[in-house]
Amino acid sequence: VVRPVLPGVYRSAAWPPGLRSTLVAVCRYSPDAVVSHTTAGQELRIRAMSDPRIHVLVPHANSPVIPGVIVHRCRQIDPVDIVHCPDGVRLTSPPRTVFDAAALIGVERTESAVEHVLHHGMCTLGTLAGTVERLARGGRPGAKELRAVLQSRVPWAAAVESELELRLLRALREHGFPEPVRQLRIELPNGRFVRADLAYPEWMLILEADHPYWHAGRVAMDRD
Question: Which of 7, 31, 76, 108 has a CA between 20 and 30 Å from the CA of residue 143?
Answer without folding.
Answer: 31
